[in-house]
Amino acid sequence: MTRSHTIDANTQDADKPAGLVRKIARIAKRAGRTVVQKALLLHYAVRNPATPAWARRVIYGALAYLVLPLDAIPDFLPGVGYTDDLSVIAAALAAVAYYITPDVKQQAEQATNRWFKP
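Structure for DUF1232 domain-containing protein, as requested:
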């Protein structure tokens, strides 16, 4: 039995740029909780002052791939549309894993729980 989730797209995180929130909110329901949570891990890692410039560039590239409409696999395809986005995000997470601190994980989890209410 699958559990349905609702997304509260009106939830604004005071420390998130409004543009990123709107873009992720637009795709969040189709992309799903896993993609959004991993994107939020990257988002909070890039906001961490300890994250170096090279890691920020990797993160910005992965987040841009998620929100921009041009993809290797079109996002509108049911079931497979976000697999390429998830792959890019997973590769970025692997590259910058050292900078995904427990604080970053906690922030991403809290934000994900606000977005996907049971």
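Residues 1-16 have pLDDT under 50 and may be disordered.
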